[in-house]
Amino acid sequence: MPSQFFGLNIGMNALSAFQAAISTTANNIANVQTEGYSRQTTTLQASAALRVYAKYGSTGTGVEATEIKQERDLYYDTKYWENQSSIGYFEQKLYYLNQVENIFADDGVQEGFSTIFNRVFNSLDTLNGGNAHDESVRNQFIHDAQSLCTYFNSVAGALTELQKDCNEEILNATKQINIIAEKISLLNKEINRLELDGGYANELRDKRALLVDELSAMVNVETKEYEVANSYGENLGGTNYLVMINGQILVDGGEYRTLQCESSDYKRHQTDAEGMYTIVWSDTGGDFAATTESASGSLKALFDLRDGNNADNLKGTAKDLVKDENGEYTTLTITGLSNNNINALNIPAEGRLKVSNTYVVYDSWEAKLDEDGNITEITFSFKEPLNALVAEKSSGCTVEIGKSVDAMGVPYYQNQMSEFLRNFTEMFNDIQKQGETLDGNQMGSFFVAKTGTEALYEFDAWGAVDENGEAVEEPVTISSHGDSYYQLTAQNIQVNDVSLKDPTYFSTTKDITNGADKVDLLDELQALQEDVTMYRGANAGSFLEVMLSDIAVDTEKTEIYYNNYFNMNTVITNQRMSVSGVDEDEEALNLVKFQNAYNLSSKIVSVLNEIYDKLINQTGVT
């Protein structure tokens, strides 16, 4: 039978177990406001029974605390991380879309397109009202037209700055991901070191989970934890914690990978800012693929806003390659273009082609036009001769310029403005070139383009007329560096310098000898405001409505998604906290419950003390 003093062991074990339970409860209460803290519980179980040689066979040995462990549910954690990625994506996107909306705003606070555009045509109407000879009226119209150009310059500049902001945020997000990866790897090592000695590193696990929470707002996150085993499947102790972002390993136990931003030497779109970053893995140089369909998080939103072209990058089919006189492949011609509208062309003058899954650099291109002015094919000249193996595979393959990003970002809005302005200025200039200035000279282009290199494009070969007033045949080709409306964008449009300095350099009539107040051309110019289909099936005056419609629809859709995911986040967080959160009422009840159990355990010791006193000190043979 067990010792007469065995009951004291039971009481002592019970005091120790319930002391641990009370301490755990106190720790929960102390951390009720600590971010990321998970409720801990002390697991109590009956101690192993003691075999005795008596009729009842064995006797209980009391209670013991086997572990103190955090309460978490991986299912709710995973759902939370998935939802956080969606919230991060739509929140970031909504922030930038609101800025785009403000840039195009036309209200009482700032003048926008409609106000300035109407002012231009009001000035034109004044000029048409018997004032064609008046240089002050002419000057007013010319400077109002320049104000319209300045408006587009400023909008394009603001969008470019927005693109640069996204680019810098991409760099900062990449640095933050690297910092988080390093911290998680260090925590993995520390957790394993502590848990190999027994128990659970609950606080360190909470810190790690909080870092994964932060990471999930930027990118898609998956985690996996498994026991470390040898080749025979025997557990070697400890666990390996794996973190993957966008389906690629970031942290593997105590090891981690880093990302780095590389500044691109080539633009994807004609109007892009310089030095846009791409993200690659530092160890392999492989593409991080931040914009795949399965990706999400604030990082993808930054790429969508920075590079979004509504999936409208130029694609075509490669024709048979022809060797030059040196037997090298230095050019490639593509046909079957996804976009044959010359005024919607947005490829950079120099850039990269994706040919047979290989990127090749071109330094110029030339496009052929049909009789309707549509592009039939484009021939690219390579900076370096094309590799023979790539050349053999390229015939008939799809060629892509830039990257298809299915979002309406900065490039999309820049391209829309360029297309509108090319349509409008070409029609306006064509009408102007039919007439004569107030001095009787042949009028040239009223709107021109001046690029960052100070090159001036006046589109002399387009809409030109001969000395008899007959239209001159327009070019059948355009090139990346030639004088065509491709060169004109919202960034560089302006009224020609001669008109700005000399208001007589503007034509109101085809033949000035008929009188300075003849305005046969002004009627044609005024028709451009509302009577001519100019852009996406609408007239020129409706340009802002079309643009704002795009922005409003995209913003509204983004806001709806954000609110939906935010509401889902509330539900998931409540479910998550129901498992791992600290409930003050529940902890208060636990405190009372374990206090009573501790008091009863003390009572066991007290009662046994009285029994042993009676047995030892008061029982004897007289």
Query: Which descriptor suits the 3D outline?
Result: elongated
User: How many distinct beta strands?
Assistant: 22
Number of helices, where a helix is a run of at least 4 consecutive DSSP H or I residues: 12
Q: Could you list the spans in which at least 5 consecutive residues all have pLDDT below 50?
A: none
Please estimate the helix content: 40-55%
What gap, in angstroms, lies between the N and C termini?
Answer: 28 Å
Strand content: 15-25%
- The average pLDDT is 90
Judged by helices, strands and strand pairing, the structural class is: alpha+beta
Radius of gyration: 38 Å
Adjacency order of strands in the biggest sheet = 11-12-15-14-13-16
Summarize it:
The chain is α+β, with helices and mostly antiparallel strands.
Record keyword descriptors for this entry.
single chain, 622 residues, alpha+beta, four-stranded antiparallel beta sheet, 22 strands, 44% helix, 19% strand
